[in-house]
Amino acid sequence: MKYYLVIANTFHDSSLALVSPLGEILFAEANERYLQFKRAVNTSPEPFLRIESLLKHYLEPGAEL
Q: Which residues contact 6 (CB under 8 A, 6 or more apart)?
């Protein structure tokens, strides 16, 4: 079953979401919330190492992404 990593990378309000094969939202967060920086302008949706930990937490081992 295929999971989806959805990234919105814009000038402002970048965000990340993980969606299950059934369309359920497993995780969604605006970048400014994680960074605790209201004006998170020109930042990546999520730091690379954070994405890895989120995938390990929300997806089963060997899941297709």
A: 16, 17, 18, 19
Q: Are 61 and 3 in contact (CB under 8 A)?
A: no
User: Which long-range contacts (C-beta less than 8 Å, at least 24 apart) are formed by 27-36?
Assistant: 27/54, 27/58
DSSP string for residues in 17-35: EEE-TTS-EEEEEEHHHHH
Cα–Cα distance between 34 and 55 in angstroms, integer?
Answer: 16
Q: Rounded CA gap, 33 and 61, in Å? A: 27
Summarize pLDDT for 2-52 with one digit per residue, the tens: 999 988 776 666 778 999 999 999 998 877 666 656 665 666 555 666 788
- Here the tokens at position 62 are 């060997």
